[in-house]
Write a structure and sequence with these properties.
Elements: E1 4-7, E2 15-20, H1 31-39, E3 42-47, H2 65-82, E4 88-93, H3 95-106, E5 113-117, H4 130-142, E6 147-149, H5 161-169, E7 176-178, H6 179-194, E8 203-208, H7 216-225, E9 231-236, H8 249-261
Parallel strand pairs: 2-3, 2-4, 4-5, 5-8, 8-9
Antiparallel strand pairs: 1-3, 6-7
Helix pairs in contact: 1-8, 2-3, 3-6, 4-6
Amino acid sequence: RLYYQTWLPEGTMRAVVALAHGVGEHCGRYGKLVGALVSAGYAVAGYDMRGHGRSGGQRGHIDSWDDYRSDFGLFLELVGRLFPGAPVFLYGHSQGSLVTLDYILRHPEGLRGAVLSGTALEPAGTAAPPLLVLVARTLSRLLPRFSMRVRLEGSCLSRDPEVAKAYMEDPLNHWYRSVRWGTEGLKTIAWIKSHAGDVRLPVLFLHGEMDPLVKVEGAKRFFEAITYPDKAIRIYPGGLHEPHNDIQWQEVARDVIQWLEGHL
């Protein structure tokens, strides 16, 4: 079962924003952005991916990236039933940006555009040695559910100490990653990169300049490889991994709302 929730504006709804969250977190961590969107007349729908938050499944595990893709498709079908006739935009953060990009490259129909935050196309750190990659692939075949606990500090996400503290104390967050999740993620990243020229939907990229988890250069390179003319990118000076939760979140919200209004 997948958990979802919606936030509704008072009065006339301008459009709906469907939210795909990052790894190890859940859709309830977007309160600042959601509040700004709702105040501007947008409905927001979010879901917890399988293995996350209030949804079922082993924490941080998938058998195949198809699991994420099919779940996202079902979620968007639900959004269509809940908000019939409304323009639909996507907002994907980190892992959610990969789910979003993978989906819109295959199924752009019926969508107005996508916002990609902390796009996880180039994880920080040095490239994995070939031997380690081979071991991971072997483990993925033999022990796909084998998981490692990868602790993520809240201070990597936001310069706001309250946000960092809340992340570390949130019981709905987790730090587990299975080997199959890792190998499927790497395959998906490679596929997305090879299909940048196939993007056929308006896109807005948001990235913190000092993101310690995924390289801003990855977002820039992918952005430049997109040939579709309706594209934009915002880099936030000094920003960390979560633009919508960092100290410049109000600027981020304004940028997102302005972009949405330009695509209604």
